[in-house]
Specification:
2 copies of one chain form a homodimer. Chain A has 160 residues and is of the alpha+beta class. Chain A contains 3 helices and 8 strands; from the N terminus they run αββαββββββα. In chain A, strands 2-1-6-5 form a 4-stranded mixed beta sheet, covered by helices on one side. A two-stranded antiparallel ribbon of chain A has the order 3-4. A two-stranded antiparallel sheet of chain A has the order 7-8. Chain A is globular and about 45 Å long. Strand 7 of chain A pairs antiparallel with strand 5 of chain B, so a sheet runs across the interface.
Chain lengths: 160, 160
């Protein structure tokens, strides 16, 4: 598959780290990880993946597009739920192998298919001693929507 | 390699999404992506990877440990540079295949090997028209340290 001309070829470390050309490095599955934060609060909402097409559509439309690992295809976030991610800023890291999207979420503001605002609604308890199983605690107290109402019978994307 | 007993086995979607057991899902390289943010400002500092050992050491020591892809081994961030990541919070996402670390960075506060505070020191210009190559602009104006002084002749981790 030829590299789209709008993404530059990676020629040198200096170009990648200090240049002003968008020259991303995709992994062996042709994807890169994307951190999505709330543009106003800084809260991390989710971690997703993009292929080249999703990245370019996100830049062009200013609505986040991801690669859906469960559906194996382009995923226009919010197309089903209405919870569109309007893009405020697209950042790229030093070696251009990951992306940070700052977004505003439409509707209820939830980004998590389980119903919470952020996918990161639990933290690891840090004061646990001994060799027992590690426990989590909830950092969000209430779901913002009922997944069954929004997604109906769509398969759950979580894999064991 | 047996799963350390402190990480629970993944038995059901409900356990993973709604339970309070830490039961992470590592990828085929035995890694998971980690988003690192400044605990005070919310700025995304870097995206890294952890294997099970790095995750457990991070929880136990409250200093971030990652998997170094370039060195192929455990990476105690700051061991060379002094820029330790003191861990304030460890969050896990709905399907427990990625981690969000909230940290405070010691020393100059930089997290990027190129010398910037955040690895995400450039953004994609969003008002570009036409089919030409996409351009970046700098969001941080100055390096916080000189990488040559801190790292000397250590090989640059960026791969083309």
């Amino acid at each position: 598959m030829p590299q789209p001309a709008r993404l530059s070829r990676r020629m040198s470390v200096q170009q990648v780290e200090e240049g002003v050309e968008l020259a991303p490095r995709f992994d062996r599955d042709s994807l890169l990880p994307v951190v999505v934060t709330d543009a106003d609060t800084g809260e991390v909402l989710m971690v997703a993946s993009m292929d080249a097409e999703a990245l370019l559509r996100t830049i062009d439309t200013r609505q986040a597009h991801y690669w859906s690992r469960s559906r194996r295809g382009l995923w226009h976030k919010g197309a089903t739920s209405g919870l569109i991610h309007d893009v405020v800023e697209v950042r790229v890291d030093d070696d251009q192998d990951s992306v940070w999207l700052r977004v505003r979420v439409r509707g209820s503001g939830a980004s998590c298919h389980v119903g919470y605002r952020s996918c990161f609604y639990r933290s690891v308890l840090l004061d646990q001693v001994g060799d027992g199983p590690l426990s989590l605690r909830y950092e969000e107290s209430a779901r913002t929507f009922d997944p069954a109402e929004v997604y109906g019978d769509a398969p759950n994307p979580t894999r064991l």
